[in-house]
Specification:
4 helices; mainly alpha; 88 residues
């Protein structure tokens, strides 16, 4: 059987587990790093929603959504406004 972890401790652990994702985004110049970081960050956020505190669960789900939204905004490659057919 597991040991009960308080809500603050769980939140601190979840936030600490997201530090590698933040480091990856800061260090890597590749756009795909945003998607890898977003998957890691959103998965760790959702995994931490086991808390009995409602506000913590909601905040972690919003944080997971924020990770995926940031990846959608910054994880694209190239200029989406430059639509040039090949050969031009």
């Amino acid at each position: 059987m597991g040991v009960a972890i308080s809500g603050w401790t769980r939140l601190a652990i979840v936030e600490a587990l997201q530090l590698p994702a933040i480091a990856l985004v800061l260090v890597s110049e590749h756009h795909a790093a945003w998607w890898v970081a977003a998957l890691w960050g959103s998965l760790t956020s959702c995994a931490g929603t086991d808390s009995g505190w409602r506000w913590t669960n909601r905040a972690l789900v919003l944080q997971a959504i924020a990770w995926l939204t940031l990846a959608a905004v910054f994880g694209w490659q190239g200029d989406p406004t430059a639509i040039n057919p090949p050969g031009e």
